Amino acid sequence: MLVFQQMLVLFIIMLIGYICCRVGIITEEGGKKLSAIVVNVANPAMILTASTGTGEKVQGSALALTLGVAFGMFAVLLLISYLIPIVLRVERKSAGVYRVMTIFSNLGFMGFPVVAALYGNGALIYATLFVIPYNLLIYTYGINAMKTSAQDREKLKLGKVFNIGVIACIITMTIYLLKPPIPIVVSSTVSILSNLAAPLSMMVIGASLASIDLKALFTDARLLVFMVIKQLLIPIVGALLIKQFISDQTLVGVCVIMLAMPVGSMTAMLAQQYGGDFELSTKGVALTTLLSVVTIPLVFALVM
Asked: Regarding predicted confidence, which is higher, 80 or 42?
């Protein structure tokens, strides 16, 4: 019930963002500015609260285990992503989009706020470790999967991998492990800024849905089947497997959240920039985001 209540709150905020966009309060340019604030200020601040807070500390062995689980999870998702287009009989031009949608979920905009809402800011120390393999993959495999021509494919660019999110994770882990004294002014500032992350990110997502034909989303049978696989089958099976090896319920819960998140908005951005099926990726983001309000509580009810 708690999970459903939290998702319902986020959905209401998302709906407010949708309405604000429809009535002109949030413009397209305004939405981009809000996204920039979330990505570059609010989300990094929320990540940092995992190290500046006063909650129970996680041992180094647990952090190492989490990092191993994170890399293992993305390795499995990578393998599954090659099967999805085959199972769904996807056309070749759209196969890359389905692969990217399978792997890269909305960890930052939705994942972190949900983790913080359900388990507290202290649990974000687990969630930050999932950002490392995520960024390593999205700026290498993610870009290349969107491209139709092998000649266009890019090599790893460290400048993109070490973005503001990863830098915030590195700083967080350093502070968390070394435990230097943090001035109250700094910790209070970080805490206040972090409170912007959940409401602003949900409003931005809601505003982005205002340009989508919502009725058309529910007539794409292939996309609906994909949603069931990604947001129900994968997280449920994944949770049952993870619970066989991990006893820490908070870590298991964070893993389930990471797996159950909807398709990340970066999927549509990569498709637009690198020649992927932009319409499909946009529909995938919209459909999975809307239905996540139901699928995430359902997954938790079944496995947690």
From this structure: 80
How many structural domains comprise the chain?
1
Q: Tell which residue, 86, 87, 84, 119, has the closest CA to residue 104.
A: 84
Structure tokens belonging to residue 243: 């619970």
The HSE-up count of residue 71 (CA atoms within 13 Å, CB side) is 7
Q: What is the distance between the alpha carbons of residues 79 and 176, in angstroms, rounded to a whole number? A: 33
pLDDT of residue 79: 95
* Tokens standing for residue 69: 């689980």
* CA dist., res. 114 & res. 117, Å (int): 5
Amino acid at 183: P
Q: For residue 81, what are the domain limits?
A: 2-21+28-303
Distance CA 177, CA 58 (A): 10
Q: Which residues contact 65 (CB under 8 A, 6 or more apart)?
A: 246, 251
CB atoms within 10 A of CB 267: 30
CB atoms within 10 A of CB 192: 10
Beta bridge partners of 263: 105
- C-alpha–C-alpha distance, residues 189 and 52, integer Å: 11
Non-local (6+) Cβ contacts of 213 within 8 A are none
- Please give the model's pTM, rounded to 2 decimal places: 0.80
CATH of the domain at 204: 1.20.1530.20
Which tens digits make up the pLDDT trace of 263-296?
987 787 777 777 778 788 888 888 898 898 899 9
- Assign 58 a pLDDT band (cuts: 50, 70, 90): low
Q: What is the CA radius of gyration of the chain?
A: 18
Query: What is the SS3 assignment for 105?
Result: strand
Identity of the amino acid at 181: P
HEC-encoded secondary structure of 186-225: HHHHHHHHHCCHHHHHHHHHHHHHHHCCHHHHCCCHHHHH
